[in-house]
Amino acid sequence: MKNIIKFKFIILFLLGIISCKSQQVYPLNASAFRTPTNSYFKDLNNELDPYIGTWKGTFQGNTTTLIITKELKRSYEMFGKNFFEDVLIIKYEVKDTNGNILQTSLNAVYPTGGSVKYLIISTGTNRDSNNEVNLAYAGGNCGAGGGEIKFQKISNTQFYWSYYPGVTTRNDVTCPPNLDYHIYLPETENLVFTKQ
């Protein structure tokens, strides 16, 4: 009798481990709407890899440097469910013609559920079958400049940058007037960034 109970316990324990380990894996562009909790949207085809590295572009005299890394299995919540996704995290620095830093996020840390100021993160790939990566920009102070960014690969060493800031409103209580609300990222379409 003891052996039967012990055997049943071992079977239940192993089944528990297997069910905890099982996770549905989907490609990056799959919809989270009808997928189960804890689904993993994985970069199965390495679509994000060509963008990893250091890139530079110049617009209206300012030079923007992008440091792009890939984070595997970053967690997020949507539709009241938890998910995981491989994403690009972009840190940047904008300098004027004299080399003065206008804005930087190079030292920022973006833990899941933490601060998002200046965060640029990928949200999908090739939605229009045009070799693009779609990104969301959280914006600067009080979300100023937050919007959508698109990267479109030109070659292994260049991509187009298109940035579309959204409309943000602020109030003087939570967003005091003494903060910088200027948008420093290049607000344009098809700006060429070159790998360094």
UniProtKB/TrEMBL annotation:
The protein's name: DUF6705 domain-containing protein
Signal peptide limits: 1-24
Source organism superkingdom: Bacteria
Organism lineage: Bacteria, Pseudomonadati, Bacteroidota, Flavobacteriia, Flavobacteriales
Domain DUF6705, chain residue ranges per copy: 1-109
Species of provenance: Epilithonimonas pallida
Keywords for this protein: Signal
Signal is among the record's keywords: yes
